[in-house]
Amino acid sequence: MNELETILRVRNLVVGRSDAPTAILKGIGFSLRRGDFLAVVGESGSGKTTLSRAIIGLLAPELRIASGEITFAGADLTRMNERQFTQLRGQDIGFVPQDPGLSLNPTKTIGSQLSEVFRLRTDIALTGAAIQAHCIALLNQVGIDRPEERLRHYPHQLSGGQKQRVLIAIAFACNPHLLIADEPTSALNVTVQRQVMTVFDRLVAERGTTVVFVTHDIALAADHASHILVLRDGRVVEAGPVGEILRNPASSYTRSLLAAQCTATPIISRAPEVAQHDRILEVEDLVMIFGDHAGPPAVDGVSFSVRRGSTFALVGESGSGKSTTARMVLGLERAVSGRIRLNGRDITRPSLAERRRVWREIQFVHQNPDASLNPRETVGGIVGSPLRAHRAGTAAQRAARIAALLEQVGLPSEVTAKRPAELSGGQRQRVAIARALALDARMLILDEALSALDIVTRMQILDLLRRLQQSLGLTLIFISHDLSVVRQFADDVGVMHQGRLVETGSIGTIFDTPATPYTRALLAAQPGHRLASVYQAHGSDLITEPSVYG
Hints:
Blueprint: E1 6-17, E2 23-33, E3 37-41, H1 48-56, E4 63-72, E5 75-76, H2 82-88, E6 93-96, H3 100-103, H4 110-119, H5 128-141, H6 147-150, H7 160-172, E7 178-182, H8 190-207, E8 210-214, H9 218-224, E9 227-232, E10 235-241, H10 242-247, H11 252-262, E11 279-288, E12 299-307, E13 311-316, H12 322-329, E14 337-342, E15 345-346, H13 352-361, E16 362-365, H14 369-372, H15 379-389, H16 395-408, H17 425-437, E17 443-447, H18 455-472, E18 475-479, H19 483-489, E19 492-497, E20 500-506, H20 507-512, H21 517-524, H22 529-538, H23 541-544
Parallel strand pairs: 3-8, 3-9, 6-7, 7-8, 13-18, 13-19, 16-17, 17-18
Antiparallel strand pairs: 1-2, 1-4, 4-5, 9-10, 11-12, 11-14, 14-15, 19-20
Helix pairs in contact: 4-5, 5-7, 15-16, 15-17, 16-17, 17-18
């Protein structure tokens, strides 16, 4: 293909539901040449994923292209049937979906799913040994350790970040001319994210791959994209080269996204100072070894304490032991050794009765509300489920409590009868928080609870958590790979690496004077360096003053 040839052109694209008058995409248009790296940014519901799936021919059954044109290498994709699309996907157009839990077959090994890409190719003939060598090389490329061993694993044996890297390896396998990636790094910690983005950058540089990269992280887009397209409510707010968008954003909406990302000072006020001796949770020398206890420990001698009313963050790469530590605190995993004290009492190996008592005091908010909320139950039923399980109050009292909880988390009363699929991502996470508060818990453990949210929704949920913490006196354990959020929100932080807690301290100490090489590497891998340099060069005028193009 000619280097200056237009690879992808979208003209006046309108996508909507066949039974609804309002379109989801409203006249989208842009074009990309060979080697362009386009980042599509915007809030949840802006149409980013719909656009990516329209290009690849994977729209949901209830959606249709009402008008417009999508051409790839001169061919009109809107006129292709499924058989023609099947020939394009994987070979000429690669696709990385957002949710690896739904995209990988749980009954097949990683090796069989990765090798299938090569076996379906009709234009090449590879032996089994050659296919395995290709698969191992691909897993190495996307930063998966022990690739030969991983080929024999099933998806449930990998972490969320590892599964996402497998999907990226599948998309890269056949050297596609065009790669569509829908939030491919939202579940990855910053070091793995950097590895994966290095692979994307190398594809563009070495192979001239054209990339459409859907993300809610404008800092990540700024570091890697050549062009940015900003969507809001299904319309293009603005588009152009990344440098121009960063230095001279033309719309107030883009300026608000940049402001949320660029704010240098903490955007969330800290919890009130509490006495150093007032510890709600103490963890001492915690050890966890899975399986027959013959392998390396998943958690190895971890010790920390959490001050009452504060926010304690656990950070580290996928597989570092953060979530396993949280599950031991909740009594969902039994420690091999060590001690856990809650309000001074030992809860290391709780009985069933004690575990139920712990669950009244500590509640868990999962990473993905889509997976943690029962899709068949109404919001009212979901929020009220802990009340029913603990036989708390009469039916009328439970109904009143549900109404109060929804109001507390900023949801209107009419959502009570709705199901999770009818809500936005931010609303679903508010439902999860309301459920966690149902039994008057004093501590919430939030396990990557913001990673799937766009920056605007994330700020709204953080503000909600701050207000709840102040009004209810909550203590928060905040598990996250997003260091920018941790710096803005937490009081204290523990850094985990390969099952060990390598350092702990106040936010100021850890971020400003990190003591270990690993923590320094973690901070250096944080995205947004290009955005920060532009912001520092141009100051707050970049964000607060209207653009000359406004």
